[in-house]
Structures are given as C-alpha cells and as structure tokens.
Amino acid sequence: MVAAPARAPRAGGPFLPPIKGTNGLNCPVMGEERRFADNRPPSVKVEKPWGRFEQYAHNVPCTVKIITVDPGGILSSQYHHHRDELWVVLDPGAKVELGDEVLSPVPGEKLYIPRGTVHRLSCAGEQPVRILEVSFGEFAEDDIVRLEDVYGRIGP
Fold first, then answer.
1. Quick count: other Cβ atoms within 10 Å of Cβ 16?
2. Is the pLDDT of residue 11 over 50?
3. Which of 38, 63, 76, 112 is the most buried (most CB within 10 A)?
4. CA distances (Å), origin 62, targets 55, 105, 135, 136
5. What is the pTM of this model?
C-alpha cells in the first residue's frame, strides 16, 4: 500500500527524467515511460533466476537509513521542506501517523511521504520496529520541523 495524501505538484517544480518501473509505487508497467511532477520515486521489481530484487533508487541523490524505534518509543510529529521520504516497513508493530490518517502498516508495506506532509512513527508492539527510510532531495537533519515532541526537542 502506498499512502500519500493528495497534494498539488509544487509550482514550477521540475519534472524528473523519464523512468521505467512497475506498480511498486503506482509506477507504470515496465517499458512504459512516465514523468513524476511530485518527485515520487520509482520502485522497480526485477525477477532473477535465484529470486528477485526491488530497487528503490537508481542514480539519484538520496540518503538511506534504517530507523529503529524501541517499544513505546515515538518520533516527533514533523515535516520536511527539502526532502520526500519513502518508508519500507521491516518489522510488525509500527504505527504511522501520516497527515490525518493513523496506519498500522505490515512488514513490506511502502509509505511515500511527500515533503510538507506531517508524519510520525511509533512502536506499538513489544519488539523494536525498523523502517528502511530513503530520503530523496536535499538531506539535512536540521530540515525537521517538529510540531510535537515527547523528548522536548521543539525549539522556540
């Protein structure tokens, strides 16, 4: 499932070059070309004799990290000005607030979070939850606008 609230493309925003992909992130069928005005990253699934792989970024600037949230832990309610994020859920027990929605994604589920979208991750289970995060755009830890934070990290 791809969860992304509806929003208009940024005025004057550049189109990405044509991509080829699959339906991993509402992308066109392999062989079809499409441009994405909202910076939605393509997800390409490739079958191999030994199995398959899914590619989330190809020759584009991005930052990749695995976020681990301990049981009872919760990240800030936040948004970003300069980056979009793709989250791939790795473990059960994640709770995601995305815009006005509260989701309980299952392992393997993908969530696309466009810049400017308020989001929050927490661990609702008894084991830590890991999320593979791929950030597209200009990445800096100071590009976090915190709206609410249980750890007191909201600035003046």
1. 17
2. no
3. 112
4. 13, 23, 5, 5
5. 0.70
